[in-house]
Amino acid sequence: MIELVGLTKTYGRRGKTTTALSELDLSIQKGEIFGVIGHSGAGKSTLIRCINLLERPTAGEVWVDGVNLTELGKSELQQQRRKIGMIFQHFNLLSSATVYDNVAFPLKLVNTPKDAIDRKVKEMLALVGLEQHSSKYPAQLSGGQKQRVGIARALASDPSVLLCDEATSALDPQTTDSILKLLLDINEKYNLTIVLITHEMHVIQNICDRVAVIHQGGIVEQGPVTEVFLKP
Ligand code: ADP
Ligand code: ADP
């Protein structure tokens, strides 16, 4: 479902280069919650941003649902990207738009009919428990509520993959747990594949099926969470 083959990313050029990822291979199955953990600078953010080509790999292939994204032209890539939702540490909401319009935004971009947008936005806001807040602006929401808007927006395009880039790192422990519970519910309801990167072990232990430990741009260990973290 997600297949990274020989993924390499080098930043900078001649003389001043940093290799963030080095010939990394990884397979993630459909419906799986897959965690990537590692210290700051290990390459986690680069890895997750390569899955939707927010970051273009220097070498290697990125396959999602049987399509090699690295071979696509601009418009085909835009089409495929709709299958990949993403949420962020700092939510990345439009501050001058209401909750409703933030969730509607990706649908408006592709000229979805108004009644279809309305149905989808209401469905998504119900899913994340924010029906009563649709007319508020992001500044009027708590951190947990902002991330719920982020999740609703990411899911509005019916993606098959959700990428979570340190999605709970700005939240307190209790709010983190409620967001992880929501991700778990969504994973079960839609059989959505979830890839999350974090530096927090308890996030991985809380919801992930499998985990990869990344260090200096390579995977040093991977497997079921219980095997990787609870070895004698
Ligand atoms: P992590 O998310 O695990 O903290 P990153 O993927 O952000 O790791 O970074 C991996 C390495 O790549 C680090 O050495 C970092 O300094 C470098 N790096 C990340 N982004 C850039 C960039 N835009 N330009 C140059 N170097 C970068
Ligand atoms: P546009 O900015 O494209 O003109 P509108 O703001 O007129 O869109 O809204 C279009 C439709 O979206 C409205 O008819 C309404 O059903 C729905 N809508 C917009 N904002 C909200 C909101 N805060 N809560 C519930 N529904 C809303």
From TrEMBL:
The lineage of its organism: Bacteria, Bacillati, Bacillota, Bacilli, Bacillales. It comes from the Bacteria. One of its GO terms (cellular component) is plasma membrane. Residues 2-232 form the ABC transporter domain. One of its GO terms (molecular function) is ATP binding. The keyword Ion transport does not apply. Belongs to the ABC transporter superfamily. This is Methionine ABC transporter ATP-binding protein. GO terms for biological process: amino acid transport. Keywords: Amino-acid transport, ATP-binding, Cell membrane, Membrane, Nucleotide-binding, Translocase, Transport. The chain holds residues 1 to 232 of 344 of the full protein. It comes from Paenibacillus silvae.
